[in-house]
Write a structure and sequence with these properties.
The protein is mainly α and about 180 residues long. Among the domains are: about 15-90, Histone, subunit A; about 90-130. The protein contains five helices and no strands. It has helices at about 15-30, 45-70, 80-85, 95-130, 145-160. Helix 2 (about 45-70) packs across helix 3. It is extended, with a radius of gyration of 30 Å.
């Protein structure tokens, strides 16, 4: 091995075990089982799965890199990987990979959309407090003003600008 290759780049054993067990349960369910059976995986089998996965990744990466170089690019794309799968006679994996990739992208789009909406709500709430000035519309003169002050203090706490109580001097004795 050359000095530039990471020698301890093993796949996480917990992840491998989880993937293997999930696939075994899926196969069990497809064969008429209930899919809840707890499968055990031998340490040597887990090691063999990990090594096989690493070899497959290296093999696929080399083929995808060749496709990338042929196209005079330096960055491997998902299309390069799919082409490499076909070139290496693993064409049956292309469709499931495309489906998984699309599902992953859709999930990420949904997460990003939710994050943006939450961010907009926080910004608009902060903007209303800053633009509105003091307190929200007075209902009875005291409760609404107190709520406005509490909300303002809460925002300051979130920003780290909250007023801290002054420390007590240890030298001064308390009155009896």
């Amino acid at each position: 091995m050359s000095g530039s290759e990471p020698q301890d780049a093993d796949l996480p054993k917990a992840l491998l075990k989880r993937l293997i067990k999930a696939k075994l349960q899926e196969v069990d369910k497809a064969k008429g089982g209930d899919g809840t059976r707890d499968f055990q995986v031998n340490k040597d089998a887990l090691l063999a799965f990990g090594e096989a996965a690493k070899l497959f990744i290296h093999y696929l990466t080399a083929a995808a890199n060749d496709n990338c170089k042929d196209a005079k690019r330096q960055t491997i794309s998902a299309d390069d990987i799919m082409t490499a799968l076909t070139d290496l006679e693993f064409g049956e994996l292309v469709e499931p990979l495309k489906e998984s990739l699309e599902a992953f992208k859709a999930e990420n789009r949904e997460k990003n959309k939710k994050k943006q909406e939450a961010s907009k709500k926080r910004k608009s709430a902060a903007g209303v407090a800053e633009v509105g000035g003091e307190a929200p519309a007075e209902v009875d003169g005291t409760a609404a003003a107190a709520e406005g002050e509490e909300a303002e203090k809460g925002q300051n706490r979130d920003k780290g600008d909250a007023e801290e109580p002054e420390p007590m001097d240890a030298e001064e004795p308390e009155a009896p």
